[in-house]
Specification:
With 539 residues, this protein is of the alpha+beta class. It is built from 18 helices and nine strands.
Length: 539
């Protein structure tokens, strides 16, 4: 074909070659199929309504018993029990608060409560870092898996931490909860979720997800709630009064401020990220397999990527302080509020090697782009500790897909709650069951009192009767705060030549190869007949 006059071949407009278009199309198809599989898979691992009712009855029973010792006490749920990241048959985490100046010490309460709860299997731990009582109930007809419960005392930081994670889950429940809950199952199956054995706790993986969605993704999927300041006190009353109230956001000397008015936040902001949950999961595994600076970096959802040196968390093996292999700060994740506490402090050298190896393995599996069911089966295949002594595990078969493709209006397949309805923290978060990742959150329903927003007096708009100038000031300051809270500080690092060079291995796939490669594999052990033998691994 003749070229236009004066136009060289190099100056012709760029047009993607057929291979590239085909690769991109296959990637989109794989991402959509895997996203639907993840929704369905995680949806079937959520607690049943009956389980939630039984656990609430147990909490009320325990609260009544504790009040025979301390009448002014309250027993509140926290952790995954309250923040939306709990799986079926998961343990209960409860915190006892005593609203009285004259009260027993936490260690004494642990001992007395252990003597009182004779109907339970009880193990008091009065000298733990946070004194707790571990108890369990045997299986019963109403709860065939039994109940395991940890009761802590006066751990108010943990309650605020739970509220923070719950707020992040409420902003984008479809994507955030799906990734977190899948990783909890995946890490358990791959034997990398036990601090006792030198790997990472489930709480640590939750923080890695939020850090990734806030500070690594560009545009960010979540705003940084700890970086959204309260509005100017000029229209909220006397400044001295506000300062006194703000002291309530400090617990044990730690600043627990974060923007908790999620209903207002969702009215004024939503992420411009359109990536599916599968695309985010692929990038999550790739980032932590090759890009995160394990030897020098600290993952902080509060402040982004910090340096170990700035925290005093270097791997100083010559110091007697670090003689214990569990205290070498091999992996560093800053607690959101207790900023001098390394959540990954228990990760040993071997534990870190296993964790990074599993991130790399998952990244390789997803880069091969097998069928969605095969991908989930391979990702969650149970790891055998010693292949010479242990029997090979059964093939992990995820639940069959039942989510209709987008646009399918077949009424026969639309009965009952959809996977995304079950993944929202409560059904009210969805509008008519729509499954769009770009939908802003709906109005936030009533929450338990200890989980409800506490700072609306500082974050809510002026009253309708207030002068227009006050409304303008509020909107301007909130807008500036959201810009600050959604600045992706790690985007240049991800696109640059940096990244961690201390990995035990490398993922030899570029972003383009990982996202658009066309290699497909089929596990011959996964047959269609096996799909009827679905096993849920939430226990």
């Amino acid at each position: 074909m003749a070229q236009p006059a004066g136009q060289t071949p190099q100056s012709l407009p760029y047009a993607p070659v057929p291979n590239q278009r085909r690769h991109a199309s296959r990637h989109r198809l794989f991402a959509n199929e895997l996203s639907q599989a993840l929704f369905e898979f995680v949806g079937q691992l959520l607690p049943t309504a009956q389980e939630l009712v039984v656990k609430e009855d147990v909490r009320k029973l325990l609260e009544r018993l504790i009040r025979t010792i301390e009448p002014e006490s309250r027993l509140l749920s926290f952790g995954s029990t309250a923040n939306g990241f709990n799986l079926r048959n998961s343990d209960m985490d409860l915190c006892c608060l005593i609203d009285s100046d004259e009260r027993l010490s936490a260690s004494d309460l642990v001992v007395m409560l252990g003597d009182l709860l004779e109907k339970f299997h009880v193990k008091p731990l009065p000298h733990a870092r946070i004194p707790i009582v571990k108890l369990s109930l045997d299986p019963s007809p109403g709860f065939p898996s039994g109940i395991a419960c940890d009761i802590g005392f006066e751990n108010r930081l943990a309650l605020e931490n739970t509220r923070l994670l719950m707020c992040y889950a409420m902003i984008d429940p479809h994507r955030v909860r799906t990734i977190v809950l899948f990783l909890k199952v995946w890490s358990k199956r791959r034997k990398i979720n036990s601090p006792y054995h030198g790997t990472l706790s489930s709480y640590g993986y939750v923080l890695l997800v939020i850090y990734f969605l806030v500070h690594v993704k560009n545009p960010p999927v979540l705003p940084n709630l700890q970086q959204i300041p309260p509005p100017s006190p000029s229209f909220k009353g006397e400044f001295s009064s506000l300062q006194n109230d703000m002291e309530d956001t400090h617990i044990d000397g730690y600043n627990t401020w974060f923007f908790d008015d999620i209903e207002l936040l969702c009215q004024r902001w939503r992420s411009s990220s359109t990536e599916t949950v599968a695309e985010l999961l692929i990038d999550f595994f790739r980032y932590y397999s090759r890009d995160f600076a394990y030897s020098t970096g600290v993952a902080s959802i509060r402040a982004g990527l910090l340096k170990k040196e700035s925290k005093g968390w270097q791997n100083d093996l010559s110091s007697s302080k670090f003689n214990d292999s569990r205290e070498r700060n091999r992996f560093c994740i800053e607690d959101p509020f207790e900023t001098d506490f390394n959540v990954a402090r228990c990760v040993t050298r071997e534990g870190l090697y296993q964790i990074r190896g599993e991130f790399m393995r998952a990244s390789r599996i997803l880069a091969m782009r097998p069928r969605a069911l095969v991908a989930l089966s391979q990702l969650c295949e149970e790891k055998v500790e010693d292949p010479h002594t242990a029997m090979p595990p059964p093939i992990f078969v995820p639940p069959p897909l039942s989510v209709p493709p987008h646009g399918n209006n077949n009424p026969a397949r639309s009965r009952g709650p959809s996977p995304s309805e079950r993944l929202s923290l409560r059904p009210e978060f969805l509008n008519n069951g729509r499954d769009s990742l770009r939908e802003p959150c709906a109005a936030v329903p009533a929450l338990p009192k200890h989980m409800a927003p506490k700072r609306s007096q500082w974050t809510s708009p002026p009253s309708p009767e207030a002068p227009a100038s006050q409304h303008a000031v509020f909107e301007n300051q909130l807008g500036e705060a959201l810009v600050l809270a959604t600045s992706s500080i790690l985007a240049p690092e991800r696109n640059g030549p940096g990244g961690s060079s201390d990995s035990p291995g490398n993922v030899n796939n570029s972003d383009e190869e990982s996202r658009s490669g066309i290699v497909e594999t089929v596990n011959p052990q996964v047959q269609s007949a096996d799909l009827n033998q679905v096993h849920l691994f939430a226990r």
